[in-house]
Amino acid sequence: MNIAHSPAATLDASAGVPRYARAQIVLHWLIALAIIAMLGIGLYMVGLPKGLAFKSSLINFHKSLGMTVFLLVLIRIVVRLVAGRPPLPPMQAWQRAAASMTQALLYVAMIVMPLTGYFGSSFNKFGTHFWGIPLPMWGWDDAGLRKIFFTLHTVSAWVLIALIVLHVAGALKHQLIDRDRLMERMLP
Q1: Domains (ranges, CATH) in the chain?
Q2: Residues 6 or more apart whose Cβ sits within 8 Å of residue 59
Q3: Strand, coil or helix: what is 55?
Q4: Are 66 and 38 spatial neighbours (Cβ–Cβ below 8 Å)?
Q5: Per-residue model confidence as pLDDT tens digits over 98-140
Q6: Residue 73: alpha-carbon gap to chain centroid
């Protein structure tokens, strides 16, 4: 009998993989799904004509979901500081550096995107409503400042898309090529 394929060996092997804390796993997947939805909605709504009631509703939903993601990211950062993270499997130094850099930039983008969207919305007459609750306006109706913040918001969206592609490609490389079980650390 081949022990490597027995249920007990599989369970024992799975138990040996260091994992993220349950809260980190839940936050990771919740934030990931929300960001994918946000990016899809954002790319879709910019193509809609101005004055369309549906576009206005979609923008308000986008803002509320974006601020929710922002709060979840802040919670995730606190949880990570408290719980730490499991060690990476053995890998070359450049891979470790690339993984750390990508992850750090993902966090930066997940903070910059909602803040620039919120500040951009603060420099117009509509502001931001968080699930119906008006948030403070940090500016006045200023087309120039609004354009700066929304340009940063758009650039950070494309940077975030590129980082997500790198993150997923790296995870798949570890799973399918390296077979180092790295993905098991974050799977539910």
Answers
A1: 23-185 (1.20.950.20)
A2: 45
A3: helix
A4: yes
A5: 999 999 999 999 999 999 999 999 988 888 999 999 999 888 8
A6: 8
Q: What is the CA radius of gyration of the chain?
A: 20
- Distances in Å between the alpha carbon of 23 and those of 73, 78, 155, 170, 186? 12, 11, 30, 23, 11
Between the alpha carbon of residue 170 and those of residues 107, 114, 120, the distances in Å are 16, 25, 33
Which has the closest alpha carbon to 173: 98, 84, 86? 98
- The residues facing 129 across adjacent strands are 134
Cα separation of 182 and 37, whole Å? 25
Q: What is the pTM of this model?
A: 0.86
CA 7 from chain centre, in angstroms, equals 35
Look up residue 187 and give its two tokens. Answer: 């799977």
What is the four-CA torsion angle of 107, 111, 116, 117, rounded to 10 degrees?
110
> H or E stretch including 130?
strand 129-130
